[in-house]
Amino acid sequence: MMAKKKKRSSKPKVKSTPHLMTLNLRKVEELVRMKNSGGIVISKEMQTIQDDTDRVVEDQVAEKYEFRYKDTNNFVKKGARYHIHYTKYLGEYYMTSMSHDSILSRLIIRQSNFTEFDKYNKLNGQSPMHLTAFSPKPTTEDYKNGYMERHFARKSNQNSTPFEIHPSDNGASPLYTYVTVTWKIAGRKNVVKFFNKAQVLAATKIFPNIQRLLPDFQYLIVTEDLSASETVKKLLGIPDYSEMEGMSVAGGTIGAGLMAHFKRTSGKKKKKKSSKTKSKY
Hints:
It is a single chain. The strands form 4 sheets. A 5-stranded antiparallel β-sheet has the order 1-3-4-5-2. Strands 7-6-8 form a 3-stranded antiparallel β-sheet. The N and C termini lie far apart (157 Å). The protein is built from 7 helices and 12 strands. β6 and β7 form a beta hairpin. By secondary structure, the protein is α+β, with helices and mostly antiparallel strands. About 4% of the residues have low confidence. Among the domains are: 91 residues, no CATH class; 83 residues, no CATH class.
């Protein structure tokens, strides 16, 4: 008689990786410890860090001798997963596990490969640095050039809203992501609109909702075919006397001499006539 073939199970096999097995074993051990001790014990320090967290960077991989466990001082094994907490007080904290786990995560201390954030904190004494919004005012030089540089920042989490900042704040704090836009503020409207829309499109790749901060014609002075000097005069409200030269007035024309007289007297205030009458005696 032929032996009956065993039916293959329709259930998919789940492969257990060493990393998952280690995590599961640790979790079981921790749950047993919690049961015996009568409840969950959460480190006050870790809870404070969690409460103050501004953003988290997950699923990082440790290098050899890069971290030590804070509670045992032993080195974290190469290849171990960890995540980083950045707090609103400009703190940077490392914990084990790909993402935060109130049971499994443990505090670890960096021993090598220090980040720019680490170096910044050591130099600046852990002082918080939060940026404030700024409304720029184009200068005469900006209007001469036809452009101005505008700077924007957003806290480095996906839910925050971008805002405009002072040029000196650009890149000043590691808590933010930045973008700079070259903004056209003088010229023909159709050219300005095309240029500024292209700038907004490029900026939305970094800040998807930045377009609401950048109306097409913000700060625009329409110059049509004006020269740079004419643009500045228009901005500052200075009369352009060149348009008057050669104009017909009372059968003649305004010449250079009369033009010079206009320029000399345009800024002078008229003297008030005295209300006192001269005595005949």
